[in-house]
Amino acid sequence: MALYQTIYQMIKEQESAVVQAYLKNLKHSFKRGLILTLFIALFIVGLGISTLVLFQLSTYLGFFVIILFGLSLLFLCTFMIIYSIYPWPLKKSIHETVYVVLSSSANSIILLVLPILTCWFMTQWVFFLFVALGVAVSACLQLFFFIKVLEVDESGQ
């Protein structure tokens, strides 16, 4: 969460000292990070239980389970970015995430695919590059895309 906030501040040119901004955001967002971790854990448990229930009802519901998993991945990826960037409470972040995922699913898919492609390209070149820069570059690409596309959509409405 602090990584997303620090990169967002760098993109918006609000901070210049990266390490100091990261440590400040880490202290500031520790409680929100715990809430995010708990929410994601409960969400994954709920998804697992709903999958088991669907398969116990009928094994022919496999297609519905795939759709449920896909939408859940889109929701979690977009929710992590929205909850990390904006100081909104959990309920409003969930509401905005549902709106973003349902209104622009293609943008949410790109937010989900960017880290996967970044990791794949970096591991193809040099494994050390992936270890050193993988998560930060992925988060930076996600935020660049988020700011350029999704915030433009919100301001245009």
TrEMBL record:
- Protein name (Swiss-Prot/TrEMBL): Uncharacterized protein
> What are the alphabetically sorted keywords of the record?
Membrane, Transmembrane, Transmembrane helix
Instruction: Give the top-rank taxon of the lineage listed in the UniProt record for this protein.
Output: Bacteria
Source species: Enterococcus phoeniculicola ATCC BAA-412
Looking at the UniProt entry, the stretches that span the membrane are 34-55, 61-86, 98-118, 124-147
